Amino acid sequence: MAEKINTIWSATTSFFKTDWAWVLYLEKGACGVGHKPGKTFFVWAVC
Q1: How is residue 15 annotated by DSSP?
Q2: Which residue ranges of the chain lie beneath pLDDT 50?
């Protein structure tokens, strides 16, 4: 069974804290920030 993707990293780092980045929470339909170190969020590549 394929893993369900719920959270995707943005390439945009937080202005206030550089070890945080914008995150898209797909199930919640929300955008927020996530702490980069230790997270296993997916990345959505855009060309």
Answers
A1: S
A2: none
